[in-house]
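Suppose a colleague, Dr. K., hands you the sequence of a protein chain of 438 amino acids and asks what its three-dimensional shape might be. Before reaching for any lab equipment, you can write down a predicted structure in token form. Begin with the sequence itself:
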Amino acid sequence: MWTGQCSECKEWNTLEENVYSEIGKNLNESISSIGAEDSPKKLVDIFFKKNSRIHSGIKEFDRVLGGGLTQGSLILIGGEPGIGKSTLLTKVMGNLSNQKKDDKFFYISGEESLEQMGSRAKRLNVNAKNLYLYHETHWQKIKNYIHKIKPKFLVIDSIQTTISTDLVSPPGTMSQIRDVTYELMNTIKSLNITCFVIGHITKEGSIAGPKILEHMVDTVIYFEGDQFGHYRILRSVKNRFGNTNEVGVFEMTAQGLDEIRNPSQFFLEEQLKKSYGRSITCILEGTRPILVETQALVTNNKFGNGRRITQGIDSNRLSMLIAVIEKYFDLLISDQDFYINVVGGLKLTGRESDLSLIASILSSFKSKAIDSSILFLGEVGLTGEIRSCSQMEIRLKEMESLNYKKLVTSKKTFKEFHKKFEIEIIGLENAKDLENYV
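The predicted structure, expressed as tokens, is then:
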């Protein structure tokens, strides 16, 4: 019988269904039957298998996964509706099926009909004879066909629409998602199937369902970007087989998702020469350095309190940098309107772009352009000091490869790297010294 309100805490929709089996009855017999292969072993007696990587045919996707797919892994991909999750996985399955023509591939969708899946595959030029498509939401039927077909690669689209008939709760509830994911994990691990699971996200941006969903899978990937824009960013936040926080950059076209091999050049290619209110910095996404442009528009305020509009950075961080400028540059700018933008829709979560943001603000306020061959890189503290950033060697190599001439950064970075690279490194101790370059 359905019950909406808890009789103890009087809260609504907090009751959760649990199904208890009779496994515990024969627990003693199962323990007595444990063999030597199930007993604890010393670390020195354990032999590790080297995981050979399977390339998907999409280098940006392989990069996010840590160099390619690992056989038998469970990969969760989340993102907003219409962002391109199904498009990406259809293309991946098509590329893999062309490489491994003796293996079978299985794409299961609970949201699209066979005609819709076939139409998308045709648009992406996927014509694999060993790719099976199936429209189904009931886990028991899906499991039956997994054992019957025995695919090497599997896609579940999506986990929130898949329902187990062992539970009477509706699809998408915590108990359904937890039960189905647990069954799926055991099935694919026993059959050594590489499985992709698509997950819906909530309005807060996290994957819908219990957090245990992310704990059970081997890899968690988020598909980010504006669904009305043309760029997409694939970001790894958990990876048992590779580095976390790796990103892959794609562009959405009529033919599907195209890789962007050099994202630095992509984010900078349409900049206006001799324009003011803009500067360039270098951020690090995982192990990948990316050059991005920070833009600032400072205008006179006509309505009292100055506005702070930001896109790509935290507004509190902007307020802090404005306070630093007022204190150490002797400029009264807090009554102005500030509009800050990071080109390409990237989000700057680190502090290495502080110097670039201050340079852009000063450039816009003074209406003076910054030389486009100069980069700004460094964290600015509340006392006005400029601090160095991590992994500078990787960043400097990226700057040199794109033919940038000067880098304005901290004194410490100058002392450590000014003789190791051809790029001219200018070390500043105080943010006020930035006035000489703006």
